[in-house]
Amino acid sequence: MRIVKVRRVGNSNVVSIPRELEARGYTPGTSVLVEEMPDGELRIMRTDQVREQIRDVGRRIVGERSEALRNLAEHDPDRASPRA
């Protein structure tokens, strides 16, 4: 843990990420998501981690609700399927 200051660069506020975190993927040019938590804390995640979390949640939901999703697909009026 390290205390850093918020600085002004142009019209933006900037927080420096300590160099030691480069080994964890926070290298120059890395895209990050900054999320404000309900308690006011900020959470910073690499976008590649966010994408993987979204995929994991999607897989879990499809697995848990596969029957409901099949029923919805069967009743989709826009579904292109041959009718006999």
From TrEMBL:
Residues 7-52 form the SpoVT-AbrB domain. GO terms for molecular function: DNA binding. InterPro entries: SpoVT-AbrB_dom, SpoVT-AbrB_sf. This is Antitoxin component of MazEF toxin-antitoxin module.
